[in-house]
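Archive entry: two folds, one per protein. Generate the first.
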Amino acid sequence: MGETKHQGPIKATKTPRPKHWVSPIPFGLGKVKPQHFRDTMKIAWDNKDNIGYATRILTQGVCDGCALGVSGLYDQTLKGPHLCTTRMNVLRLNTMPALKEEIIHADIDQLRQYSSTDLRKLGRIPYPLIRRKGERKFSRISWDEAMDVIANKMKQLDPKQYAFYLTSRGITNESYYVAGKVARFLGTNNIDNASRICHSPSKTGLKRSIGVGASTANYQDWFGTDVLLFWGSVASNSSPVSTKYMLEAKKRGTKIIVVNPYSEPAMDKYWIPSNLESALFGTKIADDFYQVNIGGDIALMHGIMKHWFEMEKQKHGSAINHTFVQEHVNGYEELKAKVEEQSWDDIIESSGVTQERIIELSELLAKSKNAVFAWALGLTMHSFATDNISQVANLALLRGFLGRKNNGLMPFRGHSSVQGSGEMGADPFVLPGSGFDAQNIERMEQIWGFEIPKWQGDIVGVTLENIVLPDMHERKIKLYYLSGGNFLETMPDPDFVEKALSELDIRVHQDIILNTSTLVDAKEAVIVLPAKTRYEQEGGGTSTSTERMVYFSPEIEGNKNLIAEARAEWKIYIDLAKRVKPKTAHLVEFKSGQEIRDEIALANKDYEGIQHLKKQGDVFQWGGAWLCEDGICPTSDGRGKLISIDIPDLGKKEGQFIITSRRGKQFNSMVYKETDPFNGASRYDVLMNAKDASHLSIAEGEGIVVYNGFGVFQGKAKFVNIARGNLEVHFPEGNFLLPRGRYEKYAGIPDYNITVTVEKADRYNARKDVQYLEKRIEDLEIDTPE
């Protein structure tokens, strides 16, 4: 199989294209839109005490924001400098001084008055801290004491009773790799990472359909493809630099289609600050919106394929790429039978899109020689998410949109290097280079020189549930070691999460800042360890982007607000291993980042080349420009697999709505603005269709209550262009409506969508003492705040 190399950055089209402008009025004056230049000046002001170091991070480091992979100010897609507000917002985490002692050692109830946003702004963790049972304050503790407390506890526990979790806040491949190795060395497979609650189904779905768990294409493939189709993604908000790529694609003739319940303003009109033409006049991004019901994507795709098979009856080859299917694809007849048995009535009801509109999209794709399908959390945060992804793969395989220029399947990753987390083995289902199967376990045991435990580790959600198991249960989690993350603001059922975190014997927070979960009690002790940022990591580190580019980010000198006691994350893991198993800890010893990269190249053959990354700007792409090049998939027979999928039943009753969560001006759970600059929505607004509201006699701005058998959410009605019967609330504020324990069966992602009832607040509160929950579940019942 040939492996074409990426050509590197290309020049952007300079000629202005007035047909893509939003408005001839410069800078979109008077419109509801982000104020990029004003925000940038504010961020510069916030970093004024460390401006030299902040500038070096931006010009030398690999972005620790989204997963586009900008190195310094440049990337591998377009020539010229790139900078965005997401990166600027995260910048202060790297430059700010330590928390003041009077704050960090204040009474715990005083600290609990702060939100995570407030805590983030107060500064970095200055030194190791401990708060034992019954203590009202954190105390300073030495690194030796802190690590001994953790190690001594681990020695007393069965390895099934402790767990590791790594978030994606700038953690490097080196730290993921060492964490995964140390966890297995200590005897536990309970290690998970942040992709579990964002893109884990992308990996399982793509693996099942085409044999790879990563984007098969590059951003450059957007340029000049016939169709760039975004499913459930607000790429412009999560990864603002991608808007430059979208503008370039449009200039080269690409049609951009968005499939989403809400016609997101950020995917409709955008002002790109680093492109003069767009900064002045804005860019109309989407050529068309398909406003699908939440959870209706599978049905919509059935409709597209149903019409393709109807086209085929009229003229062979008018919709299906038969040559590609015959040479490279299995399961064609089974899929055809499954699609043809779907009725148009079921497709229309589930998708919420008319037959005429579905046929329009179906014919557009049938006439397109090339297409790139990109998606994000709108497809992955469902109980049938793996099926969502395989259904997208079905469309690509039937048309041959795979393994060549201007084509491909692209899970649109939200965080820098989260792509690397599983590839490094920080995941219960994988080891570096492959799955957690007998063959790969044996291979890794030879590389590592120690025995790997053979039992299946648990995903993060199950690990949290296992904390509350009876005391004698062999899987009762008693110690949880967290690198970053805040489960109170990312997981469903935050009340249960708080209860679980408080029932741990010991909880370790290895982080750069405090958050609300750090302040929850524990039975014996809460230990807080100050971590270094990726820019402080000795010898630098690497991160993997959405398009499989592995970038080297150097250690950056000159931090005026240096945290003297902070340590590189991978070094802390090795220290822990030495204390728990001193006699054999030489097996996990690394002296430098270079040594880790040398071993990664051996452990994961895709990463052959990482050992040569040594200085700023060094980069390579694993797998070449296109995975499945020439249609040959890395499956047992080299062929892709069409998967027959049923339309899911969401259990929605008459009069109910389906609700999903959305991000505003935030980075994961870190909120940067209380009001979304794209639509003016505040954090407790419920986004709904005006016709639905009228039916319930709800006025815009009126207090409403959204409730179900799991929780209650009080907010205000905000009317937006969203498909009828669908609602959106902000994440994490709306997580109280979500039940725990509902996981997607293949990837283990929690379900972030649920049926709800909506009422005017005054009517609801008048009835609330009589009967308001559909189903009373005592330990889940939440009273509405008055």
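Generate the second and append.
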Amino acid sequence: MSQMSTPAPRSLAEALRLRDDASLAELLRARPDLITPVPTDLTQLATRAGTRASVVRALERLDRFALQTAEALAVAADPASYDELLGLMRGDAGDPAVAATLPRALGTLREQALVWGGDDRLRLVRTARELLAPSPQHPSPTGLGPTAQEVTAGISPGRIQEIVTTVGLPSTHDSVSAVASLTALFSDRARMTALLAEASPESLEVLDRLVWGPPYGQVTADPAARLRWLLDRGLLLPTAPGTVVLPREVALHLRGGRAHRATEPLPPALEATATHRPQVVDATAAGQAYTALSTVEELLKDWDEGGPTVLRAGGLSVRDLKRTAVALDVSEPIAAFWVELAYAAGLLASDGEADERYAATPAYDEWLELPAAERWAQLAQTWLTATRTAGVVGGRDAKDRTLSALGPGLDRSAAPEVRHRVLTLLAGLGQGASPSAESVLARLRWERPLRGPQPHEDLRGRLATWALTEAEMLGVTGRGALSAHGRALLGTPPPAPAPAPKDAEPTQQGPGDKLPVHHTPVTLDPLSPTEQATATAAAARLLTPLLPEPLDHVLLQADLTAVAPGPLKRPLADTLDVLADVESKGGATVYRFTPGSVRRALDAGRTASDLHAFLTAHSRTPVPQPLAYLIDDVARKHGHLRVGAASSYVRCDDDALLNEIMADKRAAALRLRRLAPTVLATQADPATLLDGLRAMGFAPAAESAEGDVLITRTDAHRTPPRTAPAPVPDGPPTPDSTLLAAAIRAIRAGDLASTTPRKQPPSASPSGALPRTNSAETLATMQAAVLTGEALWIGYVNAEGAASQRVIAPIRVEGGFVTAYDHTADEVRTYPLHRVTGVAELAED
């Protein structure tokens, strides 16, 4: 092997020094926490790579087989050979898939600095071994227990000699050699087979119960014969009073040499349960995309004059969420999803007033002016990258408080990565193929397995389930398959269509049918902001021709309704929303004209002639006579009564009409009194008086102090400018190529400075410390180096107080500065002499 020509590394730091820049870049890309902040040298990088928090994070990001490989190394000898590791992974029977895949898994562990050393001396980093090795407090995922040597450390030498003698081994003079001979026996397959052949079926049954873990059992002070036989031969060893353990070597013999009950070298394949024509998928997804836009618009329109109040602890109350769900005609979890999506997109927020309420933001008005496809692309991109997770609404936080929509505690940092991964898996299938949710979840659990039996904490599984549902609601997928605009959103070109019968439209399998997938799904990294913007624009372009064109007309009917056979252009839709009430939705929207809706349009400043002209211009059918009569009748009465502020008053030229009001029993609550034949006054405010008279069937109009009719257009309530909530990152972001190159250059530079041999004068600083010389000695050494061209080792403290060591070749010393070629930075730099802590000459070699 190539490693034979290079001295074997004695530490992880030395192993990192043997890596090239590309290998270091892969390490820092896989474990970005190692670069925050940038280590000063490779020794510090190795130290940071072995910290508990960093190792735990790295282990949690391993796939199942790589994690099983690390678990096997944790129960192997330290160091272990590749052949020993292979034996633990595939056992005596030998699995060709394990043998073929193990180099990849081991390469992953090496790349992430969890394993170092050559194939003859594989070492798991100490922290990973502590996390994965078996102990009474933390059993190993393999189900193996401690070794015989570890268990016998607490057993008396006399008892150890008794066990050695019972199994037929010669007695020794010390416990160390006795334990060694016992371990050799347990590791010898032939001798162990002969020993177990003497055991009774009852004793073998005890071993069978412990062999796959947990390896600990309870015994009484006077164990039964089947247990006594095992204890006398060391096949069970005591660890505490009343507790015994199956030694690791014995368990491995009983398992046939396998560390795991079942190894999983290959990821589970996705099972496509249905295949549709791509055109059907895209059309279905486009329909869902249009519904998503309509739902968000309806939500914000419902909150246009100010939405629900903000809870004192933040968020939406359960009652307001129910009301919103009823208004949108959806379930409460789905309503929470749309509310959270609009909030994450910056379309709604709290207004910050004393009586704080939720309302649309100014960004919502800008969003409405965009073409429909661009509006959808903005929502889809927000969903793909947002960490706020509507699925947890209604659950409990760590303090057992209910999580409310729009409230705190809804961020789940893993959500964007899970959504992206789910869509990436769908993108790897043929066009039109929709996988089963179970196979997607199985694949994700293999890629990121749970460490330990924690099914209730399977957050990634829940996130994946929610992602599949939300992608369908949003129109990223259609009929369970990824759409063309959904693929574009990921920045991946479409693959070849999945095979399907030519006469199928679509091909739909039964619940139990499975379509084989003969290729591996692609793996895509999350896009950079620039790439994501390009992908979003491409998704909008693909979606545009699939969305229905807005219409400029409706169909008026004699029953005082209007049918919009499709989406309406915005001016028409806005005017119709004022003039009529929505009666039903669907492929076509039905509007109902009522006296109240017509009066609403008149209150907004429209005249009867305006309404007749509007309906005539935008109806493909003649204006029905009942509708024309309704408008004229309401307009004739509108404004006949005038309401102003007295507290408020009513005036009318027709005193008979005022007499009618005074005689009406429903007016008693208004407490009206006549001031003049044509004027009534009340202590009620004008708004209450208007509502009361309208409830009595009149059509009053409000007037100003000058006597002019007030136009009561509804003013949309908007919050001040708000920024969308920033996603909460799942640890440090993955560094880009520029940052990686700069970081590696800095690490190499620091390592060069810390490892370069240098002369050690009597006054030299301790190893690893910055050199210390006085200013005169520093200046003299610098000037001498300018004449000789020699390199020097210096300590330097920058303006922020950060200390570092550098190797420089001085070029010029003047004015309190030294200009030198900095070998560590690979460039010419100028340093103030007063920031140089000291200087030392390098060793001649």
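Annotation attached to the second fold: The radius of gyration is 39 Å. Residues 349 and 358 are 5 Å apart (CA to CA).
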